[in-house]
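Researcher: Next entry in the queue.
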Amino acid sequence: MIGLVVNPVAGIGGPAGLAGSDGADVQRLAVSRGARSRVQERTALALSVLAAQHPGLVVATAAGEMGADAVRGAGLVPCVVYSAAATSRTRAESGEHAESGDFPLDLPDSARLPDSARPTDAVDSKRAVAAVAAAGAELILVVGGDGTLRDAAAGLGAEIMPAVLGIPAGVKMYSPVFAVSPRAAGALAADWVTRGGLPTADREVLDIDEAAMRRARVDPTLYGMLRVPYLAGRTQARKAATPASEAAAVEAAARGAVARMLPGIRYLLGPGGTTAAISRQLGVEGSPLGVDVVLDGAVVVRGASEQELLAEIARGPAQAVVTVIGGQGFLLGRGNQQLSASVVRALGDDPLLVVAPEQKIIDLLGRPLLVDTGDLELDARLAGHVRIVTGVGTSSLYAVAAPELTPV
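Model: Structure for this entry, 408 residues:
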């Protein structure tokens, strides 16, 4: 059986420029900045692929926005085994389709709960994953970011160890437990059902203290291991930091980017060590993990949200400056959700200035760079080849792919 647990507020802090979504205060601030979680849309993308190959599949899940709503929306059958409401009504009383005959027969009484609309938190994520595992799910899809997968690992503990696959929908996604995109996750789940399982590997669950991260202290901590179905091109690698020995190469790449900057253009400097080097060379104080708008050598907006970026783009020509996430190869969709599909579309026909030290490209071993904006049409448009600035007067032409378009 396939399981599904959704963190309804995953990723809401990304478009708001908050470098994460942990905590009710951060979530309220994100909403006040006009942000919204796209987790349900990304869940729907994954389930649409699964449903296309296995219509009517029963999915063990949590109530309401934690999974059941998305399962029903995809035309699949939810087997609700956890509800944040913690009531004692049975599934029959809640209107679930018990007559299908495909539900596990040994569900505990505590699992037979109705849907709930109350706000959920990390405790609910832990309990929901534990309940889905206890219901017999052999593969659990968990929708969120590193914090949500950390909760999943805590919920499973050391005794119950089904396979787990992250559907990327958060802000921080350092862990190698995620599919490269929602649709890739759906394809892996569909293959799992078809084949009765897939090869798995034990992968690290990493997370970062968001408060420390907002102070530019990025130090991932290991919180556990999960058994993850692995398929090259479908499961992402762990984020790799740039070694200190490459500092000179980073500075050279940054100088090359600065040399290409034109007057009158608003540059949206995304997060990353290489773009931080650009800020230093421009003599401006940037936000190390945010997106800053720089015009003619001055910061116009520091730590901009998605809405602020759209407003700046409307004022004149602009281009986003992005770098390559080491080890993973992502340009968009990991840690820079402020550069949303709406923002990238607004930038026009030449939206990206890509800058990276050459070693990051070499370390990809020929794998394409990836874009995961959540807009399939835009991702396909960005696919092809991009010029990467690697130094003053030097650049490389390299392949870019949407995760859905990469070969299996």
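Model: The chain has a mean pLDDT of 82.
Researcher: Noted, moving on.
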